[in-house]
Design goal:
CATH topology of the largest domain: Fumarase C, Chain A, domain 2
Helix content: 55-70%
Distance between the termini: 80 Å
Strand order of the largest sheet: 1-2
Structural class: mainly alpha
CATH architecture of the largest domain: Up-down Bundle
Radius of gyration: 28 Å
Number of helices: 14
CATH superfamily of the largest domain: Fumarase/aspartase (Central domain)
Low-confidence stretches: none
Order of helices and strands: HHHHHEEHEHEHHEHHHEHH
Shape: elongated
């Protein structure tokens, strides 16, 4: 298989494996997006006179065929291809001979990768928003079925003030909606077309139309100047990891509450059998493993942010191969985030609150009593506070 950088000298197998073995597997998720980017690039080359009508038709048809074969599992990237970019061009060249090699005019693997990655990240933002919507529906399910049940509100894990299932659920719903808003902003930030920046310094001597590929790929803007494209490497990836960490940190709190409420000491809820696991030695156990694993998931995007910054923070402004190592943690971060949201959404609809096990102690109403004293007696809050405090010594 030919690499896009191939000059006729065979690369040592050990070096090829070290530099590309993982990447060839990771790039499988980028193939549909790289095919879209290649289609738009070919149409731009045609518009500028670099491809004839018949040549464009052949290339576009071949790209469409590859997309279908990939979807059907009949074609994929191999380790010998090195990456999805070489895999696509190799497939085109095999089918169209030298015509397949014309598609790389005016682009580099740098802007080609970023185009595919940004299209992918925009799709990921849509997937995360959809998953959050489903999670909100599950919280609304709890609201509809158990919302009026009174529960203690806690500070320092001690009874603080009265709350309810509805108030508890609405707090998470509000934050999830804020998360959706931030994800929408991230999607807009990803909608910058890098095509035409090539290896970071444009395409001198060629008359290309960057605005056309922006339009064809439904990017909102073209990224200018071309040198900013490589300077920005790692920023969108870190932003994605950051948004994932905020979402999963919210879910971590939610899951910690459910785990606590499910303990024998609390007994506020019971979990249906289909979401609990057992012990290999204790036959009575029904464990909230789903909520425990979801609680720990936030560690992954948090670590991903660190990985990305440790890779990018000391690099100079041009391209460096180090950036390839961002893909693995980024993809893992995205996968665990979507999977966790989906798992928690399903599990919440299998949580049952048990009102007879929930007791609200008189101390929970101490603050309310102080407020009433202020209203009824016209004294300062500090006086009321001291008066009520004496009742609970």
């Amino acid at each position: 298989m030919t690499k896009l950088w191939d000059k006729g000298i065979e690369l040592n197998h050990l070096i090829l494996n070290y530099t590309s073995a993982e990447d060839s597997q990771l790039d499988k998720r980028l193939i549909p997006y790289d095919l879209k980017g290649s289609d738009a690039h070919a149409k731009m080359l045609h518009s500028q006179g670099y491809l004839k009508d018949g040549e464009l038709d052949q290339i576009v048809n071949a790209l469409n065929e590859l997309a279908i074969l990939f979807q059907q599992g009949q074609w994929n990237i191999s380790a010998q291809d090195e990456d999805c970019h070489s895999a696509i061009e190799n497939a085109l060249t095999k089918k169209l001979d030298q015509l397949g090699g014309k598609i790389h005019l005016g682009r580099s693997r740098n802007d080609q990768l970023l185009c595919a990655l940004r299209l992918y990240l925009m799709d990921v933002c849509n997937q995360i928003s959809k998953a959050i919507d489903d999670l909100i529906k599950s919280l609304n399910y709890l609201n509809a079925n158990f919302g009026q049940i009174a529960i203690p509100g806690y500070t320092h894990l001690q009874h603080a003030m009265p709350s309810s299932v509805q108030l508890w659920a609405q707090g998470f719903i509000s934050e999830l909606n804020q998360n959706k808003h931030r994800v929408a902003q991230l999607r807009e930030n990803c909608s910058l077309n890098p095509l035409g920046s090539a290896a970071g310094y444009g395409t001198p001597g060629l008359n290309i139309d960057r605005e056309l590929t922006t339009k064809l790929l439904h990017f909102s803007k073209t990224q200018h100047p071309v040198t900013s494209v490589q300077v920005s490497r790692g920023k969108l990836e870190a932003s994605m990891a950051f948004e994932c960490s905020l979402i999963l940190c919210d879910l971590s709190k939610l899951c910690s509450d459910i785990i606590l409420f499910n303990s024998q000491e609390f007994g506020f809820v019971k979990l249906k059998d289909e979401i609990t696991t057992g012990s290999s030695i204790m036959p009575q156990k029904k464990n909230p493993d789903i909520f425990e694993l979801a609680r720990s998931a936030s560690s992954i995007p948090i670590a991903t942010i660190q990985e990305i910054f440790l890779i990018t923070s000391k690099l100079t402004s041009g391209y460096h191969r180090d950036l390839q190592r961002i893909k693995a943690p980024l993809f893992r971060c995205i996968d665990i985030t979507i999977e966790t949201i989906q798992a928690v959404a399903f599990s919440l609809e299998n949580v049952v609150f048990i009102p007879e096990n929930i007791t609200l102690d008189d101390r929970l109403y101490a603050t309310e009593k102080a407020f009433r004293m202020v209203q009824d007696e016209g004294i300062s809050f500090r006086e009321a506070y001291q008066a009520i405090a004496k009742l609970y010594k």
